[in-house]
Amino acid sequence: MTTHPTTSPAPLGGGRSSERAGHLETRGIDLVPADERTGRPRRLFAVWAAPNVSYLSFVVGGTLILMGLTLPQAVGVILAGSLLWVFTGVIAASGPAAGTSGSVVSRAFYGVIGNKAVLVLTGWLIAAAYLALNWSAASVAGIGLVERMGLPDHPAVGAAVICLIAGATLLIAIYGHATIVRLYSALSVLLTLVFVVVTGHVLAEADWSYAPAEPLQGAALAATLGIGFTIVASTPLSYGNSPDLARYLPRDSSPVAIAGWTASGAYLPSVVLTTVGALAATSLDMTDPQAALESILPGWFVPVFVLAIILNTLANNGMTAYSAGLSIQSVGVRLARVPAVLTIGVIGTAMTLYALLVEDFLTSVNTMLQLVVIVTGPAMAVAVTDLVLRRNRYDGPDLLAQEHGGPFWYHRGVHWSGVLALLTGGLTSLMWVTTSFWTGPIARAMGDVDLAIPSGMGVAAAVYWASARALRTVPRP
After folding, report:
1. Does 307 map to a domain?
2. Distance between CA atoms of 240 and 129, rounded to whole angstroms?
3. Is 9 domain-assigned?
4. Residues 344-348: contacts with CB within 8 Å, 24+ apart?
5. Dihedral (C-alpha) 372, 374, 375, 380: value to the nearest 10 degrees?
6. Over the stretch 189-206, which tens digit does the pLDDT of each residue have?
7. Using CA atoms, how far apart are residues 27 and 12, in angstroms rounded to an integer?
């Protein structure tokens, strides 16, 4: 058996990280030393609030009403689906415990080699898809603004707007953790003020007695509630990167506090703004959300609203690109963090150009949010189950060591308990999902009821727990 070092490998970024806002973060996935781990868990509230004071929440809320739900039904779906932010909070606690990124912690779930294959899907492709989704939303708003300024409605103008927004986002990701923490504290306040104004106008216009022309009943209602839950819950399930934003906290930080501040920072704005989107749809045509909301805002405030949409996208995608760059390093690509961020940015920009200039935006949003849960739900379930089994006891140096025979090498570099759990959970989820172009056979047999998330997560958690216990691959702490 080859012994592995007790210290973390040299940074891919080329030395000690300058953990100060406004300075480039050079640290990649390497271990964060104790003397650079400062702060308290409560700072995570603003870090997670800024990305979730979101225009897309309006879009999702409006979609629930467009699907035929009543206002109380839509609010119930929003409250239930948003509860899954608890899982995002729970896995954030592994960041300070390990002192490294979530994409390295996941070696405990899948093994050194198996983790690389999983990260290609979850850390690259899905991250790039979410970059494209959010950039599309901001670009729709930005293109409308530049057209008001007199620029022509031309694909070249749209492409330029997309590239400018993408470039600004990647700049945040390149500057890294300290800049994100400082910047997002200010953005969370600014965006909240803007969206409070929007909320006030929506409440003034809302039809509180709204009822669908043909209320859903029976199987149709159950199917719609299931689809709505999947769309709402897909957002918290997509944030498997929460350890990355918490890893600079001291190792002895309270796991409960980390989970609570992370989850509440995302949950509260998500619930409020998604509900406001549903209220907007009771009196406005939310098939074109931006135009609908702008129609009730004062003319002078519309550019402010558009700017807020763009700033929110910078916050959301800055976080996503930051973590995706770390995932590229975790796979083993010998890139410093900055080139890694730029690589994922190029992929996301290309997908945005296609999604916005070729496909219908609203259709793209709903389809993607329903499909990604096939992977993100089971992956989140595996992560939470592993954390519970280990009682959040992760050793950063062991996770970073990749030699044969190391504690996370398992069988030929693959932890089959994790891989099997992810595959069976994903397959189960696929059988239960309902989208515009694919309905799983079990969902079809049950009247098109979408239970992709609870079925996939439940199976993944059960398989991981049972197989890890049977094979004794996860030691009892």
Report:
1. yes
2. 14
3. no
4. 344/124, 344/127, 344/128, 344/131, 345/131, 345/166, 345/169, 345/170, 345/173, 345/321, 347/124, 347/128, 347/131, 348/127, 348/128, 348/129, 348/131, 348/132, 348/135, 348/166, 348/317, 348/321
5. 100
6. 999 999 999 999 999 999
7. 7
CATH assignment at residue 348? 1.10.4160.10
- Hey, what are 195's tokens? 């969206």
List pLDDT tens digits, range 12-62: 443 444 467 778 888 888 899 988 898 899 999 999 999 999 888 999 999
Domain boundaries, position 197: 38-471
pLDDT tens digits along 65-89: 999 999 999 999 999 999 999 999 9
| Cβ contact 147:161 at 8 Å | no
Distances (CA, A) of 299 to 142, 152, 304, 389: 16, 21, 10, 55
Residue 110, φ and ψ in degrees, nearest 5: -120, -5
Q: How far is Cα 72 from Cα 329, in angstroms, rounded to an integer?
A: 45
| The one-letter amino acid at 347 | I
Structure tokens given for 176? 């890294």
Quick one: which of 344, 89, 348 has its CA closest to 241? 89
Note the pTM of the prediction, 2 decimals.
0.88
Tokens (6 digits) for 54: 């979101």
Give how far Cα 281 sits from Cα of 78, 192, 211, 216, Å.
Answer: 14, 21, 11, 17
List, in order, residues 6 or more apart from 410 with CB less than 8 Å away. Answer: 111, 112, 114, 416, 473
Domain assignment of residue 57, yes or no = yes
Question: From CA 363, how far away is CA 370, in angstroms rounded?
Answer: 11
Mention every residue, 6+ apart, whose C-beta is less than 8 A from residue 454.
none
Q: Would you say residue 15 lies in a domain?
A: no
What residues contact 380, with CB distance under 8 A and at least 6 apart? 84, 87, 88, 91, 237, 240, 457
Contacts of 15 (CB under 8 A, 6+ apart): 26
Look up residue 147 and give its two tokens.
């057209």
* Cross-strand pairs, 429: none
Residues 214-261 pLDDT 10s: 899 999 999 999 999 999 999 999 898 899 999 999 999 999 999 999
Number of domains in the chain: 1
pLDDT, mean of residues 138-161: 80
